[in-house]
Structure formats: C-alpha cells, structure tokens
C-alpha cells in the first residue's frame, strides 16, 4: 500500500508540474538589438520591469595590460547613482515613493536589475530602466561613493565565518579563466581604476544589444509594446561583445591547498571539481547528484555523517552554476576531534557507491519529485518568472526552458547518474582544500 501511495503522489505531482507551470510569453526585438520578453498575468495588480545585462564578474575592466576585477559588481551599485534626469541618490527614492521596490544582483556571468510596482506604474518602471541604459551619470563623485560602499560590503562578507570560501574555490580551481577572480573583485583594482575606464566599461557592455528586457505581470501586451518602443528606441546599439577566455587544462592529479580564515574556530574540508557549465545536460545530472548527497536531512551524507556516525557538524555538496565551468564542491565541518581526512574518506565512500552501484528506484523518484517541486516554486510568482525568462534567453539561449527544463530532469536515469559520478567525481580530478583557522603566525 505504501508503495502505491508513493507512486500515486509522484504521478499527481508530475501532472501538477506539467499543467500548472506553463508560462506564456511573447518576444520581439527593437532595431537597436534589445530583446524584449512580455509575460501577461492579470491575476494581481503588480508589474515587474527588469533588465539582465550579459556582463558579470568574469568581464574585467581596464585594459589588457592592466585588467581590473570587480567592475560588473561595481556597476551594479554605480548605476543607481543617478542619470541626466534623475538626481544623485534619487533612483531608489522615486521607486519607494511610488509604492515599488527595487534591487539588483551580479554573478560571474550576468547583472540583473529589477523594479516591482503597482501595475499602474508600468510606464514609470520602463522610464527608469531606460534612463539607466540611456544616459547614467558616471562621474568621480559617484565612483568614490560606491567605492566605499563596495569596500564595506566586502568587509562584511569576508569577516563573516567561512566568508572567503567562494574566493578560495575560484582561486584554486581556475588558473587562467577569469573565474579565478572573486566576483566582487580586488579593492586595489577598483582603487587604481580611472573614470575613463569606468565610462569605457559602460560603453562596452551596457548596450541594448547586450541585454534583455522583461516586463511581466498585470499588463496589456499591445500597450506595453508601445511603451517599450517609446522609452527604449532612442538607445543606441553598441559594439558586439567578443569574449575569448583561455581554456583550463583538465585536473588529472589530486591537488592540495590550504586556506586560512581569522573568523573561524572550526576547520573545514573542501573537495572541489571543475565541471561542465550550466547549459549542459551533465550539469543537470550533477545537480541531482548534489541533491542526492546532501539535499536535506534525509540525504545520504547528512544521515551518515551528522545523524548516524556523529562525525560532522555540517556537510554539503553543491553544484555552483556558471556559464563556462560549474564548480562541484563538497564541504564538511568536523565534530569534536574528527580529522578532516576522515571526513573526506567517508564522503568518498558514498561517491564510490554511486560510481559502482545504481541508486535505488525510490531515491531516484525522490530526486525527480524534489526537482519538480523546485521547478514549480521557482516560477510561482512574477519575480521568479521574470528572472527565469531573462536567464534562459540570455545565458541558456532557449527561453522556452521555462516550460520544458523539468523534462531534462525527468529524463535523467539512474544510469546517467552513475556515469556522471564516474566521469567527473574521481579524486584525481579535484582540489582538496583544508580551510583552517588563521593564527597570529600566518
């Protein structure tokens, strides 16, 4: 009976994920190359206007002779400073005064700005984003102001426990690709940068043909098209962005490293692998592997190391998504006097099982259910839908993944999982990092 109920629940969830999650959208291009995606949902009087730019931490500023890290993240802040028609510091005030909210975020691969308003403020949202793209004020006052803001953000981030982990992963996994540098950049690069370099960076990357505009929510499609043209037709097309990043050589022998953090008392062990970028089928399979290993308290590593053997305070396997290379990393904190090597041996034992045995049918179905649930939740509101539409178009090259991505996960078999574990997760393909408390001598 229990098996029958489990199968029925899985079937019901599959039907729900297929029918309830379909997202309708409309696409068109302006003459300047701006791609526009509209999603009409009149169930609530809310609208989101968002722009995703194809620029991220991997795109250095400066010159080839003196590259500057952290420019994309810096611009995430700088482009709120003001424009020729919006006073310094007034961008956020205008949004808040009109019942809206706003934010932005930057990854190694893209920068995303969004404004959420009552739907009767749609025109205001479009005007604000066109102002940001058309003629922002990039001057020394704004650069100096945001330089201090970014420095404080970095201090807060790095002074939190285990705050340097992402930088540590990048530095040790990548030798030539710009993923080796932290997304937030190095402060000495920003300090040394000139105003001319910042203006050049804006000209190079923040053009309509290097972006996608999403308008989602309580809109009328025809009216919205007219407003988009009204506010964005004036923006001039920029030069095409050309990237020629160096390729990494495969890791063929286990590499070992140590990193130190003055803000921790408990050491950690990291095992990190360089794996295919997020647009590949293998990346989806590795998502499932990470969830199988540590996705919740019923996962194999949590049950083994935290619950049963009481060897770890925490354990996690993550597949960090990036366009050119993902980072698959396993992380554990020891409990008591348990050694870091012991934790790594116990983790490897579970990975070896995946490489030599198929996971059970029940565990496989559980994974499918988890990813169907994530799929539904990710696009349950217009904020998630807007970001997904932007991401799938700009980074994956297939906007309809918003409706069909779940089919990729459903198509992954137990044999696929075993093959990917064999192909990517052997000890000779990784960097092992001891993440240690920093002492006065170091």
From TrEMBL:
Q: Where is the signal peptide?
A: 1-20
Transmembrane segments in this chain: where?
none
Q: Which domain of life is it from?
A: Bacteria
Q: Domain Peptidase M16 N-terminal: where? A: 59-182
Pfam families from the UniProt entry: Peptidase_M16 (PF00675), Peptidase_M16_C (PF05193)
Which stretches make up the Peptidase M16 C-terminal domain? 194-370
The family line of this record is: Belongs to the peptidase M16 family.
Query: Can you name this protein?
Result: Pitrilysin family protein
Organism of origin is: Psychroserpens ponticola
User: Source taxonomy lineage?
Assistant: Bacteria, Pseudomonadati, Bacteroidota, Flavobacteriia, Flavobacteriales
